[in-house]
Amino acid sequence: MLAPVGMSTVVVSLTRPNAYRGIGAAVAAAPHNALILVEPGRYDGQVVARAKAVTIRAAVPGGAPVLLENRDAAPAVYCDGAEVTLQGVALRTWSSDAPATVATLGGILTLESCTVTGQATNALLAEQGEAYLRGCHVHGMRRGVAFVDAQGVVEHCRLWDVDEYALLSKRDSFPIIRHCHVQDVGHGFEAFEGGRGAVEDCQFTDVRQAALVVSSRSRPSVRQCRISGSRGSGLKFSGSAGGLVEDCELMDLAGCGIEVSDSAEPDIRRCLIERVGRNGIYVSASRGTYADCTVTASRMPAIAAVDGAVPQVTGGVLRDVRGDAVLVRAAAGRYDNLQIEAPGRYGVRVQGGDPSFTDLLVTGGEAGIVLDSDLVADVRIEGATVRDAAHTGIAAEGPGRLTGTRVRVENSLTGVIGAETVSIDLTDSTVSGGEIGLAGTGQASLLLDQSEVIGTTGPAVLVQDQSRLTMRTSTVRHCGSDGVQVETDAPVLVDRCEFVDVTGEPVRGVDRPLVSVIAPPQASPKRPASGDSATDTDGISDDTGRDRSGRPRDRSEAESTDVDAVLAELDAMIGLAAVKREVRTLAQLIKVGQQRRKANLPVLPVSRHLVFTGPPGTGKTTVARIYGRLLAHLGLLSKGQVVEVARVDLVGEYLGSTALKTAAVFKRALGGVLFVDEAYTLARQFGTNSDLGLEAIDTLVKLIEDNRDQIVVIVAGYPSEMTQFLAANPGLASRFTKTIEFADYTPDELLAIVSGLAAQHGYDLKQPTNDALLDYLAEASSDPDFGNGRGARKLFGAMVERQAERLADISAPTAEQLRLLLPEDLPPTGS
Question: In this structure, which of 85, 276, 687, 710 has its CB flanked by the most CB atoms within 10 Å?
Fold first, then answer.
């Protein structure tokens, strides 16, 4: 092959006379911009190029190989501020102490149709320079191609049999990887410490850990890649990482399709995820957007958001998932326009947190939407259709709330059921088909407003135990039994509802003391059938508020019962004696104030807005929720829900966005409590966005004034820092005049928390364990980072894990062994 005009040619040959015998010597002697033609053979030694441009080319392309080897602890080719091109050459190192087989520092290194292998740490290391690989093979290495503060292109290459990563982007790097095949490697592509780059149209197969790993603030883009056969996850984001992933296919993976954790925030679009061993998309303590993705046949929930995650999911199809399609556990996020088909168990499962769903479609499964945790949940649904669930369309239990608008539940055995202390509020909704439309058990609270229940074979609405019902301007049609069947002693209000073609009674149980029915205007309640013992008005009180005997109905009895129940819940909390006393006093002041107002007596103003001070884990959020329900039962709040926020939920990224963000959160909390945790961070002076926190405070003050009767705001944090917070705006101190202090739990109280958790979950603590626990807690609680109640819950979880490890070698442990926690199950102090 002839050299280009103006390029000097140097020949390297093991046999030709007057030729260089070594490539290194030829490069050292060659002038700038020289072409070095290397005849077939094996050449030893290192090639070093400094401050010049050279091209090293196999003299017989496609012929016998040219192999360059180095046995020293150094790269076979080292480019130091030079411009080196290698064409058709095989490179190998024999020392594991060598940093790379090929390396460049501040230079430009190009490999075309080359093979790189050997014992060095990296196949190629580009540092503070550029590297270009085209049509190359990299294999049999500990690591592949690494870019460190460098850039370049890797295209049409094959990388296989690599122990760790095949490709790396570190720090200020931006490599472009395209049209490559990566196989049998630890990680396919890894970006960390701020690494960027683009990975396009690449195939990753048989990856041992994760095909793409993005961490430590890195932000690459990944497009049109195919990932299959991985023993781990497809994509992993962590450590505040981000980046764009779009139009990728991930299938037949042992782990998750996409795994996001540790404050990562990727942008995922139009990805297809099939047959993964764990979750399709897993988000933990992170954010990110996930648009128009399809997840099929995952063994675990197609989308899982846990431990404080706040994903934004838009569009997408989840089908044939073995278990639940969507799992939200102690997390939030917004889920818009999701289509769920044939889940193996539940369509959506919420175990604590405050997610919102818009335009949701769930078809099939055991149940459509389920709330089933001891953790408080606040679920909002704006537009949903749940159809053909085998058992229940919507099932909710626990201490949470589900609020739905434009919800349609079709052809489920039970349309909607609430249990324990949950609240379910449905507006402009329809429940059709099945045996029962709505059912309440335990102490559940059901609200049906401007809605319909159609075509049930049994009662349209059934309330049992101590559950409550409020049903306003709604319609029951074509019901095979009673319209509303009351089997509860708690308050039931049926207000201006219509009953059309109801086989049984419109409301059965109207003779119960707390049942109240107000007939719709210009309509009469359905008369009982002949022989029925009810009066011809069904014993229903009319809109005058009088019972069948004409005496005024005393509805304050129900309100008093509700308030007592909430205060009893407060009293049941462990410790917090001073807090309980303060809250009870507030309730009494409010109640007496209402009574004085009725008696036309002057009423002293009582500040509803509160400051909670104290260390983390002392029950501030739980007391806030109780306070919200208390004010709702006292009639000062319309809903009583608690919206918990922190600085990140209020402060925007630029001036002006904070006011919009704060107003949106405030609107969600109207009718209830806005709980601002670590509120003092809004007033801190740090970085360039300090004034944005002050903007949030100013916005809150104005919104509180404009909505003074519609909301309660509680701000929480450490005592000294909350003093600084209240001084940040003149309007804060006048609106927050009441402070409630939360003290650290004592070791005895922490022991009571652990004992309660053990009993709740079916574990036994004998006296030796209790004694050891008390000693442990006395030492652990002296550490300010222990976390009080959170620390106690974490400790219980650690004991359960250590018990499992202890019993692992017992083939058939007894029930007593499975229940019993021993002193040796305590983790080491400080772990």
Answer: 276
Length of the chain: 831
Name 487's Cβ contacts closer than 8 Å, sequence gap at least 6: 462, 463, 464, 465, 509
Checking DSSP bridges between strand 100-105 and strand 267-269, what pairing results, if any? unpaired
The set of residues, in sequence order, having a beta carbon less than 8 Å from that of 825 and lying 6+ positions away, is: 769, 799, 800, 802, 803, 806
Has residue 709 been placed in a domain? yes
Dist CA 34 CA 55 (whole Å): 6
Question: Among residues 714, 741, 768, which one ends one of the domains?
Answer: 741
Whole-angstrom distance, CA of residue 243 vs CA of residue 195: 10
655 found inside a domain = yes
Rounded Cα distance between 604 and 583, Å, is: 17
Cα gap 81→83, rounded to integer Å:
7
Tokens 């922190």 -> residue: 646
What percent of the chain is predicted at pLDDT more than 70?
93
Whether residue 685 is found in the same domain as residue 789: no
At residue 4 the predicted structure's pLDDT band, cuts being 50, 70 and 90, is low
Express each pLDDT in 66-91 by its tens digit. Answer: 999 999 999 999 999 999 999 999 99
User: Are 592 and 670 in a shared domain?
Assistant: yes
Domain count, the chain: 2
Quick one: 615 and 665 in the same domain?
Answer: yes
Distance between alpha carbon 6 and the CA centroid of its chain, in Å? 62
**Taking phi first (over 0 means left), then psi (-120 to 50 degrees means alpha), and beta for anything else, what does residue 482 get?**
beta
Sign of the CA dihedral running 585, 587, 593, 599: negative
Element (H, E) at 769: helix 767-780
CB 74 within 8 A of CB 46: yes
Based on the fold, state whether residues 751 and 733 are members of the same structural domain: no
Q: Is residue 755 part of a domain?
A: yes
The structure tokens listed for 550 are: 């004409």
Expressed as residue numbers, the domain containing 784 is 747-825
Termini Cα distance of the chain: 68
| Digit-coded pLDDT (tens) for 457-494 | 999 999 999 999 999 999 999 999 999 999 998 899 99
CB 62 within 8 A of CB 90: no
**pLDDT higher than threshold 90 for residue 591:** no
Output the domain CATH number for residue 655.
Answer: 3.40.50.300
Question: With contact defined as beta carbons under 8 Å apart, do 313 and 288 qualify?
Answer: no
| Spatial separation of the C-alpha atoms in residues 558 and 635, rounded to whole Å | 12
What is the three-class DSSP state of 546?
strand
Same domain as 675, residue 623: yes
CATH of the domain at 763: 1.10.8.60
Q: Angle 785-787-789 (CA atoms, 0-180°, nearest 5)?
A: 165
Q: Is residue 830 very low, low, confident or very high in pLDDT (cuts 50, 70, 90)?
A: low
DSSP state of 824: G
Provide the edge-to-edge strand list for the sheet that holds 673-676: 642-645, 673-676, 712-717, 610-613, 738-741
Q: What is the 3-state secondary structure (H, E, C) of 699-768?
A: HHHHHHHHCCCCCEEEEEECHHHHHHHHCCCHHHHHHCCEEEECCCCCHHHHHHHHHHHHHHCCCEECHH
777 within domain boundaries:
yes
Q: Are residues 811 and 768 in the same domain?
A: yes
Q: Helix H segments across 445-598?
A: 556-571, 577-598
Residue 5: other Cβ atoms inside 10 A: 5
Whether 616 and 689 share a structural domain: yes
Maximum alpha-carbon separation in the chain:
126
Domain end, chosen from 679, 709, 741, is at: 741
Residues in Cβ contact with 659 at an 8 Å cutoff, skipping those fewer than 6 apart: 652, 695, 696, 699
Measuring CA to CA, which residue among 570, 569, 574, 571 is closest to residue 777?
Answer: 574
375's tokens: 């953790």
Count Cα atoms within 13 angstroms, Cβ side, for 332. Answer: 10
Tell me, yes or no, whether 782 and 724 share the same domain: no
Tokens describing residue 429: 């909704």
Asked whether the beta carbons of 222 and 199 are under 8 A apart, the reply is: yes
